[in-house]
């Protein structure tokens, strides 16, 4: 298969997912559809290396992750992170719900090692899945080593549609309040103003530089430089404490935006956001190549069981904590569900739902200000931070 044919096929799969999402008004998220099509493709005619063949090897995907996460930091502010303390508590409660349900009920249905291997990938991303997979392999549990990867790959199939349903319900409630003059847009990070009331020119640190020099390459350079600083910091502090450079990218993006080194959403302004999302999605779906039909049959029972029990525990805990914090049950469950997929799915699903609910730009702005920040914050708290910590602890139980 030639490179351009592979690329054309993969982009067609992403487009079909988008088209179905648009047609169903986000009731069926694009990521869910694309994931199913990738799975079927790998089971039929996709060569295993099709994503690399198309031009998205792991090195390119990692580069895009650095740029995207740093860019995502610019969508938040330090004040926004502080204001999302309720979101953080609810997201953590959802994870505790998964742990409680699987240790309380899951151990009655499956062996202890299966539950231990399942939890970190279920509440996290690729890093935690790899940690548990390698740990299981080292412990002489080859089936569970595959199970760790498969549960990471498949868990989103439960999370995508559930999140879409919850966000649509939340969005409809917010629109009703807005149309009844009971709700206004929250100030987004990009809406900072001077005391005169005039919008601040971005990036502020380069306000005196002529606009003609703020080229796409200059935006890419600043994003890459901030990403490098995050990586360098991760390396320097590694002897003391290990922190993923991707976590630091988010933090450094927030700081760079706050001090005026980066504008809001520079990747989009540099016309690179869509391409970066495409590359990252292809890399994520590349993980499905390991999910062969025979493996899926062998682990189907514990796979479905762990996901159903875990999501049920997540719902109960997030509902209780959300009620205590006076957050709607829909939003509370939605932010907890980010543990099943993280970025970029949390961003994509939220935007798809918002676009499906209204065509009015002001209403979209209101929905975005209320729904996107908590989804982004929750995704990073669960997938990037908590899940890796859990994996480091749980791998010792094998």
UniProtKB/TrEMBL annotation:
Top-level taxon in the UniProt lineage? Bacteria
Keyword match Transcription regulation: no
Query: What InterPro entries does the record point to?
Result: HDC-like
Report keywords, A-Z: Membrane, Transmembrane, Transmembrane helix
List membrane-spanning regions. Answer: 29-46, 53-76, 88-110, 115-132, 144-167, 217-237, 270-288, 300-321, 333-355, 375-397
Q: What is this protein called?
A: Na+/glutamate symporter
Source organism per UniProt: Planococcus kocurii
């Amino acid at each position: 298969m030639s490179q351009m044919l592979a690329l054309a096929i993969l982009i067609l799969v992403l487009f079909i997912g988008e088209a179905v999402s648009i047609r169903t008004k986000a009731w069926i998220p694009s990521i869910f559809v694309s994931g199913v099509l990738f799975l079927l493709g790998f089971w039929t005619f996709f060569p295993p290396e099709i994503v690399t063949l198309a031009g998205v090897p792991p090195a390119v995907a990692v580069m895009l992750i650095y740029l995207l996460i740093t860019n995502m930091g610019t969508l938040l502010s330090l004040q926004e992170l502080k204001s999302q303390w309720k979101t953080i508590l609810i997201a953590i409660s959802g994870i505790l719900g998964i742990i409680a349900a699987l240790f309380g009920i899951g151990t009655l249905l499956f062996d202890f090692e299966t539950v231990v291997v399942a939890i970190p990938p279920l509440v996290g991303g690729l890093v935690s899945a790899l940690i548990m997979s390698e740990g299981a392999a080292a412990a002489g549990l080859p089936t569970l080593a595959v199970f760790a990867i498969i549960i990471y790959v498949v868990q989103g199939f439960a999370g995508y549609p559930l999140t879409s349903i919850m966000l649509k319900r939340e969005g409809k409630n917010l629109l009703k309040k807005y149309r009844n003059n009971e709700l206004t847009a929250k100030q987004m990070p990009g809406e900072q103003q001077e005391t005169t009331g005039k919008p601040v020119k971005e990036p502020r640190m380069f306000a005196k530089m002529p606009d003609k020099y703020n080229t796409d390459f200059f935006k890419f350079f600043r994003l890459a430089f901030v990403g490098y600083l995050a990586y360098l910091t991760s390396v320097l502090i590694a002897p003391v404490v290990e922190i993923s450079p991707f976590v630091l990218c988010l933090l450094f993006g927030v700081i760079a935006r706050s001090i005026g080194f980066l504008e809001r959403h520079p990747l989009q302004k540099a016309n690179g956001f869509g391409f970066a999302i495409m590359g990252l999605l292809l890399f994520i779906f590349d993980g499905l190549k390991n999910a062969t039909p025979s493996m899926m049959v062998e682990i189907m029972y514990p796979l479905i069981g762990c996901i159903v029990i875990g999501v049920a525990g997540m719902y109960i805990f997030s509902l209780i904590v959300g009620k205590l914090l006076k957050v709607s049950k829909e939003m509370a469950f939605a932010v907890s569900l980010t543990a099943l997929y993280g970025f970029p799915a949390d961003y994509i699903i939220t935007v798809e739902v918002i676009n499906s609910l209204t065509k009015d730009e002001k209403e979209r702005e209101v929905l975005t200000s209320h729904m996107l920040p908590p989804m982004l914050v929750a995704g990073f708290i669960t997938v990037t931070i908590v899940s890796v910590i859990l994996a480091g602890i749980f791998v010792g139980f094998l």
